[in-house]
Amino acid sequence: xxxxxxxxxxxxxxxxxxxxxxxxxxxxxxxxxxxxxxxxxxxxxxxxxxxxxxxxxxxxxxxxxxxxxxxxxxxxxxxxxxxxxxxxxxxxxxxxxxxxxxxxxxxxxxxxxxxxxxxxxxxxxxxxxxxxxxxxxxxxxxxxxxxxxxxxxxxxxxxxxxxxxxxxxxxxxxxxxxxxxxxxxxxxxxxxxxxxxxxxxxxxxxxxxxxxxxxxxxxxxxxxxxxxxxxxxxxxxxxxxxxxxxxxxxxxxxxxxxxxxxxxxxxxxxxxxxxxxxxxxxxxxxxxxxxxxxxxxxxxxxxxxxxxxxxx
Length: 312
Ligand SMILES: Nc1nc2c(ncn2[C@@H]2O[C@H](COP(=O)(O)OP(=O)(O)OP(=O)(O)O)[C@@H](O)[C@H]2O)c(=O)[nH]1
Ligand SMILES: [Mg+2]
Hints:
This protein is of the alpha/beta class. The protein is built from four helices and 14 strands. Strand 13, helix 3 and strand 14 form a beta-alpha-beta unit. The longest helix is centred in the C-terminal third of the chain and has 15 residues. The two termini are 31 Å apart. The structure holds guanosine-5'-triphosphate and magnesium ion.
């Protein structure tokens, strides 16, 4: 299952305490320093399912540094932890309101630093105090309460009513293997495919009222906020294709009016189910929308080639 939102508490490890101790034979301090607590880093991954590994653990703590020991032995530094976050993730700190974004695959940055270890009493020796009776405590690691939100990064988005043929098109033009079904809401979470080195996302079907939670709701629309082109699929089977178009546009608007400004091509799907005359008549009704319209069918390879060419 694609997890796109989690709340998580992270905590860097505490520093180990400095040691208060004295040589047995010769009097004098020999307490070593505490080791540093582990850091927690965010690391980018192209695995869009990576948040699924985190959801079960709503709290992740790095280990504490080891305490200092007698004989001037320092405690070991604790291991750092890396948390893999998919490209497209934004991380918000609920307290400080800072936000971080994972935009590319080479990103790695510190989210919570581990605390420094305390100094042992050996470090505090001086000519005026040859037997310091104190050692420092390790510092606490940083704690953060984070909201993590993944918006998939795709160049193209396939949207439309359930059953419009979105997943079928994705299957035909990419090597993705989405589930296809002759019933609405076959697709329950976005499918991604690659075409001409760009990512195309097939979004679960929308219905009237999606923005108020009907059907699968509009929660997947966040994944098309960054696309550069929308493929709006309308099936020839629709009784009133123009109205269908407007219903979907209204849902886009309710989610985020900026979606209406995105370049858009209408894909009139399943053209094999209608006669040429009928297709012409549908195209005529849609003309007033003043949008580019491409009639397509998964049974017509020429139409699929035209679609692929648009993505070049
Ligand atoms: N005849 C014909 N049937 C098609 C075509 N494209 C899709 N279909 C059929 O239409 C039905 C729905 O196709 P899907 O690709 O699952 O539709 P979808 O838009 O992804 O649907 P949801 O996931 O529910 O939103 C399936 O039975 C497909 O086989 C087409 O070009 N011609
Ligand atoms: Mg589908």
